[in-house]
């Protein structure tokens, strides 16, 4: 099987991106990252990509006259590179409906909670962990899911739990959840690249 061509969208440091890069370099993931794109010019993840010889792009929304023009440029950028799989690895911008439709069933996202808890509009980054601690739940975790036109509403691929400890702070909880994020994102991308994910309506089946 030829390697799956992957495009990664980021907004920050790119630790999840680095885990994907490492997974590919080790031969664990049968894929190739062809493009890393960010909506933030100073995102460190772009430097991670450049270091590995991966095309790294910053596309400035302000340089386009309208949201529609910007969205067309993003779609065109991915299509020109024949991207098979789009991975949102800490991307803090809502994808356009046009983009989601173009890559339906081929966009996955990592979220730092057990969806459908602590997700949706306004739930990202440390805000998720603050709410987890405020609410007093005993278990949290991370979720990898397909992206649809809603916010964190797409079909779930993988989830893994993390115990919430009494002494936890936002920082300590975030660090433990991030470890799990790294693990299940790499696993989900591997499964996709091995053609072992079957999607029917909302149900995801892992083929063995």
UniProtKB/TrEMBL annotation:
Site feature location: Raises pKa of active site His: 152
Keywords, sorted A to Z: Purine biosynthesis, Transferase
GO cellular component: cytoplasm
Residues the record marks as active site: 111 (proton donor)
Binding-site residues, N(1)-(5-phospho-beta-D-ribosyl)glycinamide: 14-16
Domain of life: Bacteria
Gene Ontology molecular-function annotations: phosphoribosylglycinamide formyltransferase activity
Protein name according to UniProt: Phosphoribosylglycinamide formyltransferase
Originating gene: purN
């Amino acid at each position: 099987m030829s390697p799956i061509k992957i495009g990664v969208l980021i907004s920050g440091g790119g630790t999840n991106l680095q885990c994907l890069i490492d997974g590919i370099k080790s031969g664990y993931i049968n894929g190739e990252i062809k493009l890393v794109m960010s909506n933030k010019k100073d995102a460190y993840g772009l430097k991670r990509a450049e270091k590995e010889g991966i095309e790294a792009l910053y596309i400035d929304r302000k340089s386009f006259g309208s949201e529609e023009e910007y969205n067309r440029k993003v779609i065109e950028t991915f299509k020109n590179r024949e991207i098979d799989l789009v991975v949102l690895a800490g991307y803090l911008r809502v994808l356009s409906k046009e983009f989601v439709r173009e890559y339906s069933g081929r966009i996955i996202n990592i979220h730092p909670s057990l969806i459908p808890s602590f997700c949706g509009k306004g739930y990202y980054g440390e805000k998720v962990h603050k709410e987890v601690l405020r609410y007093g739940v005993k278990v949290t975790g991370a979720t990898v899911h397909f992206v649809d036109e809603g916010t964190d509403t797409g079909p779930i691929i993988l989830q893994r739990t993390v115990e919430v400890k009494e002494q936890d702070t936002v920082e300590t909880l975030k660090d433990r959840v991030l470890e799990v994020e790294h693990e299940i994102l790499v696993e989900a991308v591997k499964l996709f690249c091995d053609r072992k994910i079957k999607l029917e309506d909302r149900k995801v089946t892992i083929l063995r």
